[in-house]
Write a structure and sequence with these properties.
Blueprint lengths: L21 H15 L15 H11 L11 E6 L2 H22 L2 H7 L10 H4 L2 E8 L1 E3 L5 E3 L3 H18 L3 E5 L6 H6 L5 E10 L17 H4 L5
Antiparallel strand pairs: 1-2, 2-6, 3-4, 5-6
């Protein structure tokens, strides 16, 4: 992606500018909040298909996220192949069995009880798409030599947030899944050693009988997550 010969600062005029009145700005903030508060983590998926182009556009949106030194240290693998999804489910459930059978401490398992999770992960096959998010720990110049990526977890986390918002805006539901460890995904999806899988996102439409844990609707009030210093 990067050439040693092109590592120079070249300022250009701001290509996109959004000038809003205070009222328009407040309306925009309110509207986006109303959209996003209707997002739910869903484990029950229908078999309704999702177009490949929709997934691609949402990932393209994720790719617009800011990143350390603009290195964009992420890669997304989108999977719809049933055999591949079955292999991912098998690998994830093996890791989850170890987690629930002693790998996690009692306190962690107790915290998960209101969510109702277990080592059983049928959504990894039922969802029409799985998106595996990889963080790139280092990159390569066009001559093949390595360069360091910066703020990799932060940058990839921001891009993943963009992706979740884009998927929701497209009318889809999703489940973020983080089996630990996830090294099996590199071999399974033929990704290089420079990359580390950090998340599997199951994506699709909610089943007609979908449920969510009641506790998931309990969000901290604004005064617990915000402090102003003016």
């Amino acid at each position: 992606m990067f050439s040693r010969a092109n590592l120079t600062f070249d300022p250009v005029p701001l290509p996109d500018r959004r000038d809003m009145s205070p009222e328009q700005s407040q309306n925009g903030a309110d509207a986006f909040h109303n959209v996003m508060k209707a997002r739910h983590t869903v484990r029950d998926f229908s078999n309704d298909p999702v177009a490949r182009d929709v997934i691609a556009k949402c990932i393209e949106t994720a790719g617009t996220a800011p990143s350390g030194a603009n290195h964009q240290p992420w890669h997304f693998v989108a999977i719809s192949n049933p055999t591949a999804k079955k292999r991912i489910r098998d690998g994830a459930e093996e890791e989850e069995r170890q987690f629930y059978n002693g790998g996690a401490g009692d306190e962690w398992l107790k915290a998960l009880e209101p969510i109702g999770t277990s080592d059983h992960k049928p959504h990894l096959e039922e969802a029409p798409w799985l998106i595996v998010v990889f963080a790139q720990r280092w990159g390569e110049f066009d001559d093949g030599t390595r360069f360091k990526n910066y703020y990799v977890p932060e940058s990839t986390g921001i891009a993943t947030g963009f992706l979740l918002a884009a998927l929701h805006h497209a009318g889809l539901v999703m489940l973020t899944h983080t089996p630990n460890p996830m090294r099996f995904l590199n071999d399974m999806l033929d990704r290089p050693k420079s990359e580390k899988a950090i998340m599997i996102i199951a994506v699709g439409h909610a089943a007609r009988n979908a449920h969510v844990p009641a506790v998931a609707k309990i969000k901290k009030p604004l005064d617990e997550i915000l402090t102003f210093t003016e």
